[in-house]
Amino acid sequence: MLRCFHVSQSVNCVRVRFAPSPTGQLHLGSLRTALYNFLFAKANNGKFILRIEDTDQTRKVSGAVENLCNILQWASVHPDEGPFSGGDCGPYVQSERLHLYQKYIETLLENGTAYKCFCSQKRLDLLKKEALRNRETPRYDGKCRHLSDEERQDKLQQGIPYVVRLKLVQLAEPFEDLIYGPIEIDLTKTRVIQS
User: What InterPro entries does the record tag this protein with (predicted)?
Assistant: First the structure.
C-alpha cells in the first residue's frame, strides 16, 4: 500500500497498484492480487492503479497487455488509473517512464550512491545456483561495486550491457507489512535499472 498526498496535499489517500509483466497469460494468483488490491482501494476510498511492468523486453509477449485488460474487465476489476484509462501520474507503462528516471540515475552514479554492474546473466545464474545448492538466499556478490574508472570505461567501450545497482551500506531495514507483519530485506543487492 502506498499512502500519498494529492497535488493539493490536503487529502491523505490510499493508492495501490497492480504491476504485471506482459510475459504471457495472467494466472489466477495474479488475478487474486489484482482483486485484493482493487477491493482494498475501494474499501478505503482509494485508487487502484494498473502499471505494466515491461522493462524485460526479451520476455514480452505480443497481445499479453490486451489479454490482461480483458481478464480484469471480465472480473469487474476496473483501474482508476492505467495505460488505457489515463490519470495524473502516467505514463503507466514502465518502459515509457525511463526518461523520468534517467536524471535521477545519473545523479546516483555521479554522487557514488550507485554503480554500473557488468556481470552477465550467466554469471548471475551461477551465483544463484551456487547459493541454492548451499541452501542460502541468492544474492549478488558486489563484484562490480569496486571497479576502477579505467575498468568501467573499458567495459563501456566494449559495449558490455550493464545494470545500475544501488551502493548501500550493509544493513537490513525492517518494516511492517499490512498482510505479512514484520519484514526485513537486505537492501544492498538492489538493482535500479538495466541498460
Answer: Glu/Gln-tRNA-synth, Glu/Gln-tRNA-synth_Ib_cat-dom, GluQ/Sye, Rossmann-like_a/b/a_fold
Q: Cβ contacts of residue 165 below 8 Å, gap of 6+?
A: 114, 115, 116, 117, 140, 144, 145, 189, 190, 191, 192
Could you give the number of structural domains in the chain? 2
Residues 145-156 pLDDT 10s = 999 999 999 999
Determine phi and psi for 92, rounding to 5 degrees: -105, 10
Please, are residues 27 and 68 in contact by the beta-carbon 8 Å criterion? no
pTM score over 0.85: no
The string over 116-132, giving b where at least 16 C-beta atoms fall within 10 Å of a residue's C-beta and e elsewhere, is bbbbeeeebeebeeeee
Q: How many CB atoms lie within 10 A of CB 101?
A: 14
- Cell numbers describing residue 46: 482509494
Give the C-alpha distances (Å, rounded to integers) separating 71 from 17, 67, 94, 155: 16, 6, 20, 44
**CA gap 76, 96 in Å, rounded:** 27
At position 161, the amino acid (one-letter code) is: P
Confidence of residue 12 (pLDDT cuts 50, 70, 90): confident
- Has residue 143 been placed in a domain? yes
15 lies in some domain: yes
